[in-house]
């Protein structure tokens, strides 16, 4: 009986430890989404720990762990004897995948899609030109593979977006510019969010497939001018698709 009791105790402890991370993630997301919705505006204090426990129906330990996560992502700041305050939006790590997910239906309020497009306008044409000169045969092959996956999944937005993100990630890497490579890692989540929003908002992706294929060919021919022109044409399409995406987001909101 003792062994059975000990076994049950260990099983209950295991189940409890399995539940806790999920509970913490759910509570973290709930608080974050309330911040994004301006229930807790920038500069305002969050409720006290005990009040948060009552609001979200969890223990103080879970609340403290959630606040640590939110602080690590720039949404809140805790100070002794002051409490936890919501940070200004410009301090948030908006390139973090979880933060993007929490912003969700409020993404339009941040003009994030437009900001990502501006960043791409600055980076990608130059990266394409450098890639035409510096890309290895393997990198061009990887771009070609990503393009073929885009072409073959043009009717499947999720798969198309995965291939699209891969294409642009490889392109920045193929520039052999160390700063561009680092930027590729930094903006990966935001780029995926932006491309997905655009890809689900448009019905016809043939123009995008065509210009991506032409960029691969320009790199293969080591045509720097052609590569830059293709990148700019891709971004012109992105402007069109962004307008469609913002209409969809506005309707969803």
TrEMBL record:
Molecular-function GO term, any one: DNA binding
Source superkingdom: Bacteria
Coiled coil stretches, renumbered: none
Disordered, as annotated region: 1-23
Keywords, in A-Z order: DNA-binding, Transcription, Transcription regulation
HTH gntR-type domain segment(s): 21-89
One Pfam family of this chain: FCD
Matches recorded under CDD domains: WHTH_GntR (cd07377)
Ranges of compositional bias, category Basic and acidic residues: 1-20
Keyword Transcription carried by entry: yes
Transmembrane segments annotated in the record for this chain: none
The protein's name: GntR family transcriptional regulator protein
Organism for this UniProt entry: Rhizobium etli bv. mimosae str. IE4771
């Amino acid at each position: 009986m003792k062994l059975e009791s000990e076994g049950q105790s260990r099983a209950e402890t295991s189940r409890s430890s399995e539940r806790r991370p999920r509970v913490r993630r759910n509570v973290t997301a709930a608080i974050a989404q309330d911040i994004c919705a301006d229930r807790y505006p920038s500069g305002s204090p969050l409720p006290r720990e005990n009040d948060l426990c009552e609001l979200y129906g969890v223990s103080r330990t879970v609340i403290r762990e959630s606040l640590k996560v939110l602080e690590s992502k720039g949404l809140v700041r805790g100070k002794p004897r002051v409490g936890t305050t919501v940070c200004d939006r410009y301090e948030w790590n908006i390139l973090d995948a979880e933060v993007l997910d929490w912003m969700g239906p409020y993404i339009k309020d941040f003009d994030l899609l437009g900001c990502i497009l501006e960043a791409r306008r600055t980076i990608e044409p130059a990266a394409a030109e450098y890639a035409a000169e510096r890309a290895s045969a393997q990198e061009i092959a990887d771009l070609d593979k990503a393009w073929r996956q885009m072409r073959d999944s043009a009717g499947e937005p999720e798969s198309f977006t995965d291939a699209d993100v891969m294409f642009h990630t490889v392109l920045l890497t193929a520039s052999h510019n160390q700063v561009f490579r680092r930027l590729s890692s930094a903006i990966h989540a935001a780029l995926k969010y932006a491309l997905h929003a655009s890809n689900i908002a448009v019905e016809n992706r043939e123009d995008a497939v065509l210009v991506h294929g032409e960029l691969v060919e320009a790199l293969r021919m080591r045509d720097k001018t052609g590569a830059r022109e293709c990148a700019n044409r891709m971004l012109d399409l992105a402007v069109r698709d962004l307008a469609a995406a913002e209409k969809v987001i506005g309707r969803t909101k």
